[in-house]
Amino acid sequence: MSDLRQKTAFRALGALAAIAALPLVAARDAETRRVVVPGLAQDYGERVPAAKAELLRIINEERSAHGAPPLAYDLLGAKVGDEFCEDAARNRTSGHWDLAGRPPYLRWALAGGIDHHAQNFAAESRRGFEFTEPPAELLKKAHEAFMSERPPDDGHRKTVLDPIWTHVGIGFAIVGGEMRMTEEYSRRVLEWAELPAGPVRPGGGTLVAVKLPRGWNIGAVEVAYEGFPKPMSRPEIAARNSYGLPPAWRTLRPYPPAGTRWKSGETGDFRSSAGGRIELVVPLDRGPGYYYLVVFAAEGEVTGRRLFPVAAPMVTAR
Predict the structure, then answer these.
(1) Residues of the chain scoring pLDDT < 50
(2) What tens digit of pLDDT does each residue of 201-242 get?
């Protein structure tokens, strides 16, 4: 199965002209909030850790050979991957979605993931005989299939070698004659995100805060919306070879320097505070569903630069 159809980049605007900016919309949600720190599930006792460690070694050797930095291992990714693989093997599904109609980015967010994320998925089914090979051999075989891809159908291979990733977790499960594995890649930049503790009412807006490391700046935040998923059949899941976040319907931009506006005429929607904390009001006017905040950022000056996603925290409106 193909991996995430990635948003390639966002180009930050240049600034000029004049006018003061006003908040986008008043936040109307005064509910309890929670702070989510990347790297949850670090006490997770994953399956076949030695086999997964061997695959991590192989992945990092391949990345090094192509000039990409090594990846740290992520137990949240392993937990999300293991749970999905178990579900897919038990239900004999083959694809990125589960029978509830949930795509990888939704399962990642529901598990507490706030980082930018992508999934490689592989499946093998056997009838009349079961898997007897060591897990390390099965994982390596599935991964080699990713790396044997050739352009233009090489989405898995591109994901493995993409230099933006910082972490990976590996999912694995065997149920009878069904084997499933995933590679759950993530880009960990945010120090934390402050989100509503539960679903909020649609309409109006809700306050979200994120914390970037010192020296990092946000160029834009795209708000993507998707309604609640509907159940899918096995054939429907198998027919979908790739996936991507829903399209952005709103772009929030930082305030330009005092007394100016962006060349496009926009006046900005949020500002960074001391220490890298960014607060913004997320409009929830598409109705009930999931709102993803795709954060584009980089170290240093962002104006005019090509930026890549660093995070995609989610807010549920119900």
Answers:
(1) 2-3, 5-8, 13-29
(2) 999 899 999 999 999 999 999 999 999 999 999 999 999 989
Q: Is 237 helix (H, G, I), strand (E, B) or coil?
A: helix
Token pair listed for 173: 């499960």
- Fill in the DSSP letter of residue 92: T
Residues 255, 252: Cα–Cα separation, whole Å: 10
Strand segments, DSSP code E, in 63-115 are 72-73
The CA distances from residue 88 to 49, 113, 117, 177, 279, in Å, are: 20, 20, 19, 12, 38
Tokens representing 176?
């009878």
pLDDT number for residue 191: 96
Cis peptide before 196 (omega within 30 of 0): no
269-308: burial string, b at 16+ Cβ within 10 Å, e else: bbeeeeebebebbbbbebeebbbbbbbbbbeeebeebebb
Q: How far apart are the first and last CA of the chain?
A: 32
Whole-number Cα distances in Å, 33 to 63, 83, 200, 201: 39, 27, 11, 14
